[in-house]
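Lecture 7 notes: from sequence to structure.
We start with the chain below.
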Amino acid sequence: MSLQVLRRAQELCEFCPKLCRFACPVSEAAGREALTPWGKVSLAALTGRTPDASAALAFAGCTGCHRCSVYCAHDNDVPAILYAARSVAVRAGVAPPAWTALPARFSARGHGESADLAAVRLSLSGRSSGEALLFAGCDALAQGGQEVRDALFAAGELGAPLSLAPEGALCCGLKHVEGGHPELYEAHAARVRGFLPRKAVHLVFLQPGCARSAIERWPLPEGSKVEHVTTYLARALAKVPDASRPAPLDEAFTWHDPCELARGLSELTAPRALLAASVRELSEPLRTGADTSCCGAAGLLPQTLPEVAAKVASDRRAELGGPAATSSPACAAALGAAEVVSIVARWLAQASGASAP
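Predicted structure tokens for the same chain:
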């Protein structure tokens, strides 16, 4: 977003009568006026280039879910405004530790997590064989990599095997943007690109936010393709005749649309098609599709405002009601939900007689 567009969006938000305030999961969970979209954007405008630590914490109160944009007459990109404000807070020396710790971690490990993701990635070697590359991402690897194993297994069983992205491609770098380091994100994306084949590539992501980030901002060769794992698997499933499919698992789930999958990638059909085939019953919560509620796991909210993040997740779990399924490693962890690819892997294991990984 250019500076001129950013300023215009900021002005529109400042003078709005707070029509989207109810749509922000953070302000709803915290119950604070300063954390409404209007409050955060107005504070960014008022503090300019000299925010203090309390202002920086207000800027932190955004998961990047874009739900406010659904109710904005101008479709303002509030996360872009607040991520720019975080960058100002970093340069002013008032940023929360969760943001300032990122550069050193990325420099030493190639990602921003405390876990040894390289060791987890190494444990997955030899499990892939396709032309398309599965980009596991830091969230799935930090949880031990089980979703990665399930995705590779499911893809192979559906006749569309995936290869695992190279060892140097552990993280998409999106947390750099969320932590106020856009220039380091660009450098990281270029570095990761160096580990990938020089020709056009087909990348399949587990984390929808990373897929969107790669589509919009990665320097990929012409002809490259980027998509979410549910899109990839649903396309492969569509080629399998109904008569050849195993019976659905005798299980029921309520579906949670991850914000970046539903609003960022506009992918509403693929995960539902996978679950419709693999389980007995799938229900929808009150807020679903493009109006989905946030799980509270993104935007570094759990690191900067952990109590608020926990409340956002708790509110969403209450909306879902019972056993839930989703397709985002971060959301699955926050909500205690099952992953679509893991459900599909268990379902397909019935037919092949193989054990799901």
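Points to note: The chain is about 50% helix and 10% strand. The longest strand covers residues 249-255.
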